Amino acid sequence: MKLSTTAAIITGGASGLGEATARHFAAQGAKVTILDRDAERGAKVAEEIGGYFAQTDVTDETSVQAGVDLAVEKMGTITATVNCAGIAYGIKTVSRDGPHPLDSFQRTLDINLVGSFNVARLAAVVMAKNEPEPDGARGVIINTASVAAFDGQKGQVAYAASKGGVVAMALPMARDLASSGIRVMTIAPGIFKTPMLAGLPEDVQAQLAADVPNPARLGEPSEYAALAGFITESGYLNGEVIRIDGALRMR
């Protein structure tokens, strides 16, 4: 697969890692459809990159199917899916306010884990109908986990559980879709300059950056995007999780 001939849907493409990926793919000649809840920002990014936009709730089957249908209508097919939509809460299992609210735990799993699976399964139906390339390739799915799946911190029980589930999906989903020529990969980012971190004080961001062994800085969304592009074009990468974190191991 080449980015120049890729037709991609990217969830969470209105901001952060998803936006960077949408811009990178489009710059390399790919057709891109952004799926995001933020209608204003999503439409703006899509217009700027010459792509398409569908307001989408990744946890809702009807909403995702409508987004997939629009992508096929506009691009002709789907050959790459990048799941970047996600949320994070900072809540301990038990705090001074009482037990972790169950609804926020469930919402985190619904968006980060169930949402990724929901988009992947519906996109895979389209990919499986593509004419295979000479090596049998019909498409690639890239899910986004986090180093929290391995090194979850205090207050990350919901987030770490959701991203751990994303990690666990990689191999069985790759095996499920192997006969259809669809690869499945997962990226586990470390600490990146995303809207999730933008609201933190500068000194906190500086401390986070200092904890990264090398290079001692926060990751750039463009670096995630470049890795997603590399995975798309590297046909022998399948069923694996790649950490992109500057060798950070959270303690």
**Distance between termini?**
38 Å
Indicate the low-confidence ranges by residue numbers: none
Q: What sort of overall outline do the alpha carbons produce when their principal axes are compared?
A: globular
Q: Describe the biggest sheet?
A: 7 strands, parallel
Write the layout of secondary structure elements.
Elements: E1 7-11, H1 16-27, E2 31-36, H2 39-49, E3 52-55, H3 61-75, E4 80-83, E5 94-95, E6 98-99, H4 102-127, E7 139-144, H5 148-151, H6 157-177, E8 182-189, H7 195-198, H8 202-210, H9 221-233, E9 241-244
Parallel strand pairs: 1-2, 1-4, 2-3, 4-7, 7-8, 8-9
Antiparallel strand pairs: 5-6
Helix pairs in contact: 1-9, 3-4, 4-6
Describe the protein.
The chain is α/β, with parallel strands linked by helices and 251 residues long. It is built from nine helices and nine strands. α1 links the parallel β1 and β2. The chain is globular, with a radius of gyration of 17 Å.
Structural key phrases:
two-stranded antiparallel ribbon; globular; 251 residues; single chain; seven-stranded parallel β-sheet; alpha/beta
Could you give a short description of this structure?
Helices cover 46% and strands 16% of the residues.
